[in-house]
Phosphoenolpyruvate-protein phosphotransferase (Herbiconiux daphne), 556 residues
Amino acid sequence: MTDVTSRRLQGTGIGRGIAVGQVLRMPDPLPEPDDTPSALTPDAEKERARASLAATAAIIRHRGERAGGSAKDVLEAQAFMAEDPTLIDDVGERLDSGKTAERAVFEAFAAFRDLLVSMGGYMGERATDLDDVSQRVVAHLRGVAAPGVPDPDFAFVLVARDLAPADTALLDLEKVLALVTSDGGPTSHTAILAREKSIVAVVGVADALDLADGTEVIVDASTGTVTVSPTDDERAQALERAEELRSARSADTGPGRLADGTEVPLLANLGSADGAEDALAKGAEGVGLFRTEFLFLDSTSAPTVDEQKAQYVRLLQAFAGKKVVVRALDAGADKPLSFLNDAPEENPALGLRGLRALRANEPILRDQLRALAAADAETDADVWVMAPMVSTVEETRYFTALARECGLKTAGVMVEVPSSALLADRILADADFASIGTNDLTQYTLAADRLLGSVASFQDPWHPAVLKLVGEVGKAGQQLGKPVGICGEAAADPLLAVVLVGLGATTLSMSPAALADVRAELARFTLDDARRFADLALSANSAIEARAAVTAASIS
Ligand SMILES: C=C(OP(=O)(O)O)C(=O)O
Ligand SMILES: [Mg+2]
């Protein structure tokens, strides 16, 4: 039996899914252990350290056995770290000098970590694993929950402040029924990865961290609500809706087109070739945004040409005969790549990111373009390449010339900064195509950090100012006969997708999970309808008014 009344928390839903389950909170990272002398003898501390290192190795190994596949190898390697004799000796020496086990483990792992980082390459990339093991041993010593995504034996709703991209990428989708975060807006990378992996998610829920472990919740992305301690009726309805959604999704997978037959190819946003099969099964007609930086988020040194080529070949082979738009590495702000931009910046979203960071490291950009051209030469997909965060005509010329020099035929730019949208006619005179990144375009138009929960309400691509800029690019594309795609999350909002077509978008790219809903919505309206909706949205005063006006028109 459950309560007769439930409580609702409001956030921003990602997609339209719904899930029911019990909450598990992601523990916060542990603070650095104090360096105060131990009250125990070194031998007693050695025994504590030995027991926690052994227990941590056993827990990690057990997780690996349960996970199987490539995760098993990764976790086995982590278990070995907790058993490494050199490390254990180092811990022992620090204990002999009177430190606590917590501090000695922390220091010994940190010293080993620094050594690995200085070695660079593959070894350097293991530094994060070492940090994880260190935190787990210290947590065991303190008798508190280990940091990172919890890994219980049952399915749960993960509640966190926010997730690092690597945490989201490694989520076990069998276990994580839904994701609720207190921070992050609808276009944060947590949201994007949640969409990509079809995880039911509600982000920016202010009180999320007050939810206690074990509380039952309904997470409804279509309304952006988290219902705490649902009634029996609420639970039954939610489970029924979840079932309906599952069956609707497996229905139509044909090409995207409006009711009058106007073709609007529906493409996939992908972060690795692993998602290719699923995207094709969901009817993706190609790839509209391949986020190459997602392949190398954990790398401490730039990937080699061969390493990159192998990844690109995998993707291009999967999409033989289809269009694949590959974005050059987009580093900075929400996607730090230490090998491209390591400098601390006061305002990273306005700093050396996107094409700016690539240009400051031109050899890395050249390697990437060469790797892509080599992969293109060996495969049969129609490869397009584009630069992220382009803000001037001069940058457009720089990138398209370099891409062509490296052997790529079709080179374009992302329009994510208002300056590029306003000068779209000049940008498109040089670029073969434009792809509008509505996530960043919204962030920069409304001056609202896309990662900040407190300004998430500004981060709404329905805002008429954002749509006006999209319309500028659409007009320039039509005049010059150049394609204009949309690859931000706006394309995954079914009704907004219709508006974007009305504003001149020729293709829409989104996480594969959103394809079915967008395809169904496009089929309900003609191009004239779409243009009428676009006019309605443009003449509104706010995002809320624009959405309401178009919603009303779409059901009348
Ligand atoms: C597609 C976009 O790029 P990303 O979300 O990867 O910054 C965008 O900004 O809309
Ligand atoms: Mg962007």
Summary: The chain has a mean pLDDT of 90. The pocket of phosphoenolpyruvate (ligand 1) is lined by residues 192, 289, 291, 330, 416, 437-440, 487-488 (CB under 6 Å). The chain has three domains: 7-26+149-247, 42-142, 254-555.
